[in-house]
């Protein structure tokens, strides 16, 4: 029963972590962190990401332009670039570490302690990647809310709003953290289980006589 639960937890955790890692990679590069609709020109929609700004027109044409100097970016975008790249790298590292530690993986099958350590290391990498994704997305979202409700800016000035990548990043971070937690719990359960002692180390009463035959008591009665 415990082995079946552990295998399901590992499969579910790995699936969630992989889904979160792919979503985090998509969030890093799509220019959809913020969106801006102009009241004066409703035919254009501006979107911004970590690497470029795009203008989508009604006829379907999309024009993108990369950001200028890295040092000229706002602090949240500079830090977000670094953290998202770190998250993507940690997610890949977590996949490489956790995969050999899964029960269905044939590699290192006879070394249970090494498999458990690899699984724990992969879970830690996934959890750290989740935090590295949630932090920049939440920071950018927080600044977007502050700028949207800034009373010092005239109402006629357009305001940036949440883009699709913001919500995708939140889901990605949650999936990575949840997947890492499931993998860590399954690794801990393997540690708490005590394997049965080998036959050579069991007491004689538990092993039984060799050959499966029960010895007959010797007749000690004296014949007179």
UniProtKB/TrEMBL annotation:
Subcellular locations according to the entry = Cell junction, Tight junction; Cell membrane
Q: Name one GO cellular component term.
A: bicellular tight junction
Which residue windows are coiled coil?
none
Instruction: For the region Disordered, give the residue spans.
Output: 194-224
Could you list this entry's UniProt keywords, alphabetically sorted: Cell junction, Cell membrane, Membrane, Tight junction, Transmembrane, Transmembrane helix
The superkingdom of the source organism is: Eukaryota
Read off the Pfam families from this record.
Answer: PMP22_Claudin (PF00822)
Q: What does this protein do?
A: Claudins function as major constituents of the tight junction complexes that regulate the permeability of epithelia.
Record's family? Belongs to the claudin family.
Q: What is this protein identified as?
A: Claudin
- Species name: Mycteria americana (Wood stork)
């Amino acid at each position: 029963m415990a082995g079946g639960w552990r295998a399901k937890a590992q499969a579910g955790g790995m699936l969630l972590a992989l889904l979160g890692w792919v979503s985090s990679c998509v969030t890093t590069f799509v220019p959809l962190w913020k969106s801006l609709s102009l009241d004066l020109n409703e035919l254009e929609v501006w979107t911004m990401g970590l690497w470029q700004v795009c203008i989508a027109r009604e006829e379907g044409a999309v024009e993108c332009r990369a950001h200028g100097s890295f040092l000229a970016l706002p602090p949240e975008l500079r830090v977000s670039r670094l953290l998202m790249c770190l998250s993507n790298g940690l997610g890949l590292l977590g996949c490489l570490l956790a995969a050999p530690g899964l029960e269905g993986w044939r590699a290192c099958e006879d070394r249970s302690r090494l498999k458990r350590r690899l699984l724990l290391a992969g879970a830690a990498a996934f959890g750290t990647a989740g935090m590295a994704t949630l932090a920049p997305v939440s920071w950018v979202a927080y600044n977007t809310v502050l700028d949207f409700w800034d009373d010092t800016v005239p109402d006629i000035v357009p305001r940036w709003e949440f883009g699709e990548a913001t919500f995708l990043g939140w889901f990605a971070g949650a999936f990575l953290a949840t997947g890492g937690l499931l993998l860590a719990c399954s690794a801990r359960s393997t540690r708490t289980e005590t394997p049965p002692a080998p036959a050579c180390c069991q007491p004689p009463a538990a092993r039984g006589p060799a050959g499966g035959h029960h010895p007959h008591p010797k007749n000690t009665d004296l014949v007179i």
